[in-house]
Amino acid sequence: MMGVRVTPEKLSDIEFLEAILRREGISVSRVRHHENDAIKWLRLEVALSELNKALQVREEFVSAAKDRGYKWVTMDLSG
Residue 69, SS3? Predict the structure, then answer.
């Protein structure tokens, strides 16, 4: 997303959340930060072959994201 300022805090959030996925054996993934005004949300991209693994860690991932101030976690179903 263009126009979103990269900050150490945002990078730290993304690194932490991607580490949750790696720990669960999800090797092909990206966590994307989005924001509009004061609302932050995430878009999760995982390989279609690892979609089930991502769903297994859903509660932990969403909880960690919300703890960091993200309102929504969405998943890109195109992989």
Answer: coil
* pTM recorded for the entire structure: 0.87
Taking only the tens place, the pLDDT of each residue in 24-47 is: 999 989 999 999 988 999 999 999
- Domain range for residue 64? 8-75
Residue 25 resides in a domain: yes
Residue 44 belongs to some domain of the structure: yes
- Looking at residue 58, its amino acid is R
Q: Which of 34, 27, 21 lies closest to 62 in space, CA to CA?
A: 21
